[in-house]
Write a structure and sequence with these properties.
Blueprint: E1 13-17, H1 50-62, E2 67-71, H2 81-89, E3 96-101, H3 106-116, E4 120-124, H4 130-136, H5 143-155, E5 162-167, H6 176-186, E6 189-194, H7 212-222, E7 225-228, E8 238-242, E9 248-252, E10 265-268, E11 273-275, E12 284-285, H8 287-291, H9 296-308, H10 314-317, H11 330-333
Parallel strand pairs: 1-2, 1-10, 2-3, 3-4, 4-5, 5-6, 6-9
Antiparallel strand pairs: 7-8, 8-9, 10-11, 11-12
Helix pairs in contact: 1-2, 1-9, 2-3, 3-5
This protein binds S-adenosylmethionine and iron/sulfur cluster (2 copies).
Length: about 325
């Protein structure tokens, strides 16, 4: 039974943040100045166990979610995350099991993830220019380490591999054509993400966003593109194909072409709250009831109620919101 919200949007996707920790400090997500040595991440006992995540996933899939994505923070810094993958792969109703990672630990993890039943993988990489990339990730990694991660994913049998790149004006936008060319040659689907005003810490300004329109123009000027249909209604990426038949790119235009009308995503944070929007102010706690002994039916009721009263359409309203409100941080709920 698929549950629907106040705008009749079904629940289809669940994004699970398995940790609030990360080995990178991307300036647009976890700026190093704030997430320094002394920053207090969630203590272990406040983070959901694999058993708790699996139980909640079972309930949420019964309510309609079929696509499950593991994210974070950085999901691969959670110890033995492949065990969780295996547990989720066995949950009835899970139709698609995927993971988004910065790629750094993939040389150690790709094979185990594949064997555990992970079906697809998305790897984030913002530039092929080492200095630019280091500036964006708080100097935690060079480009080669992530390329090694991509190679490890290929060798483990992930195909196709999606690559995510956040585009920030004046930071990495001069490197997007090079990236497009590189991944076109290798047959991976590169997806550019418009820089978003998630959280409260990245000092986002509209002037820093490079629009989907501009991205397509810049790449199309060198390698002609034509638009493609969406694969399915709630797909977030706008798709374009190279006219010479050399594959496609995607653009996630959450700022200039919002897609709230088809948004079917629920997010589960590392500490066990569900959020019905990436830009939510607060979540609904499930860990409390879970640990106090609530039955599956009782938890299901909380989730039904939360989704049933969902009115989120932040990206469509963005232009009209006069005052910045307090929002959850991206690394909390994983994008
Ligand atoms: N650590 C993993 C990674 O980087 O792939 C998974 C979590 S990360 C929060 C998920 C995705 O959100 C990444 O592709 C990242 O680039 C993107 N992201 C984070 N902050 C963003 C922002 N302010 N605007 C657009 N995308 C953002
Ligand atoms: Fe870490 Fe991913 Fe956020 Fe970068 S975008 S700081 S890799 S969670
Ligand atoms: Fe979904 Fe919220 Fe993003 Fe709109 S702004 S697409 S409702 S997550």
């Amino acid at each position: 039974m698929t549950i629907r919200d106040t705008f009749n949007r079904p629940l289809r996707d669940l994004r699970i943040s398995v940790t609030d920790r990360c080995n990178f400090r991307c300036t647009y997500c976890m700026p190093a100045a704030i997430y320094g040595e002394s920053y207090k991440f969630l203590p272990r006992q406040q983070v959901l166990t694999f058993e708790e995540i699996t139980r909640l996933t079972g309930i949420i899939t019964r309510l309609g979610a079929v696509k499950i994505r593991l994210t974070g923070g950085e999901p691969l810094v959670r110890e033995q995350v492949e065990k969780l993958v295996a547990m989720l792969a066995a949950v009835e109703g899970v139709g698609d099991l995927t993971l988004t990672t910065n790629g750094y630990l993939l040389p150690q993890k790709a094979q185990a993830l594949r064997e555990a039943g992970l079906q697809r993988i998305t790897i984030s990489l913002d530039s092929l220019d080492d200095a630019v990339f280091r500036r964006m990730n708080g100097n935690r990694s060079g480009v080669q380490a992530v390329l090694d991660g991509i190679t490890a994913a290929e060798q483990a049998g992930f195909d196709p591999i999606k690559i995510n790149a956040v585009v920030q004006r004046g930071v990495n936008d001069h490197t997007i054509v090079d990236m497009a060319r590189y991944f076109k040659e290798r047959g991976h689907v590169l997806r550019f993400i418009e820089y978003m005003d998630v959280g409260n810490l990245n000092e986002w300004r509209m002037e820093d966003v490079v629009s989907a329109h501009d991205i397509v123009e810049r790449i199309g000027a060198e390698m002609p593109l034509e638009p493609l249909e969406r694969n399915y209604k709630s797909e977030v990426a706008l798709r374009y194909r190279y006219r010479d038949g050399g594959g496609e790119i995607g653009i996630i235009a959450s700022v200039t072409k919002p897609f709230c009308g088809a948004c079917s995503r629920m997010r589960l944070s590392a500490e066990g709250s569900i959020y019905t929007c990436l830009f939510a102010e607060k979540g609904t706690d499930l860990r409390g009831p879970l640990r106090e002994g609530a039955s599956d039916d009782e938890i299901e009721q909380i989730i039904r109620q939360t989704w049933g009263s969902r009115i989120d359409r932040y990206s469509e309203e963005r232009a009209g919101i006069p005052v910045r409100r307090k929002k959850v941080e991206m690394y909390h709920i994983g994008g």
